[in-house]
Amino acid sequence: MHQLNSLRPFAATLLVVMSTLLLAACGALPGAGDLEDKTVLANQPVDQTRMLTKLNAYRQQHGLPALRLDPELDQVSQKMARHIAERDSMQTWAHSAFGLSQRLDKAGYANYAAAENLGAGYADLDAAFRGWQGSEGHNKNLLNPYVTRVGIARTNRNTGKWRNFWVMTLARPYADGRPSVR
Q1: pLDDT of residue 160
Q2: φ and ψ at residue 27, rounded to 5 degrees
Q3: 142, 66 in Cβ contact below 8 A?
Q4: What are the tens digits of pLDDT across the range 75-122?
Q5: Beta strand 164-173 with 149-157: parallel, antiparallel or unpaired?
Q6: Using an 8 Å Cβ cutoff, are 83 and 92 in contact?
Q7: Under 8 Å CB-to-CB from 99, ≥6 apart: which residues?
Q8: In angstroms, what CA-CA distances link 161 with 36, 85, 89, 165?
Q9: First to last CA, the chain
Q10: pLDDT, tens digit, for every residue of 29-72?
Q11: d(C-alpha 177, C-alpha 66), whole Å
Q12: What is the pLDDT of residue 78?
């Protein structure tokens, strides 16, 4: 009995230490907020040659000249794709004639004509292109007779409604001369 009484303070101390360690371990567990997905945006490569071939074949069917790839328009497109991906929406002041003009000016891209197509939710280039062809306004941009160059970009988002954001920017820089009146 005497031995049992002498173990009680030790057992009580051990119980307190174990409880403290257990509570400390619980504090190391992730909280509810830590288990939620953090939004991650990732710029995705686009097969530029395939896009240009597809676009120029479509323009040729409508009697329009071919466009050239323009890395500066790729950059303008990428910034816009990221902008709409951050918002998980295409509803932004930047998607307007004034917004496009302002973004091209900011990029130092002097031009006579410019247009852009946005798309959200399309899993691949073919789907985005078909979507643009099927929309009157977007199709008008694909067949714009005044543009001479094109850039395209895609940004993915791991959370949200749309996940895939596409931007195609079409323009005619000053270097290509004034458009002729048709």
Answers
A1: 85
A2: -65, -25
A3: no
A4: 999 999 999 999 887 676 556 566 899 999 999 999 999 999 999 999
A5: antiparallel
A6: yes
A7: 92, 93
A8: 16, 10, 9, 11
A9: 110
A10: 454 445 567 999 889 999 999 999 999 999 999 999 999 999 99
A11: 16
A12: 96
pLDDT tens track for 155-177: 999 998 888 999 999 999 999 99
Rounded to whole angstroms, the Cα distance separating 148 from 170 reads: 7
Bin 160: left if φ > 0, else alpha if -120 < ψ < 50, else beta. Answer: left
**What single letter denotes the amino acid at residue 103?**
R
Q: How far apart are CA 169 and CA 146, in angstroms?
A: 13
Longest CA–CA span in the chain (Å) reads 110
The DSSP code sequence of 81-111 is: HHHHHHHTSS-STTSSHHHHHHHHHHTT--E
Block residue for tokens 């329009």: 64
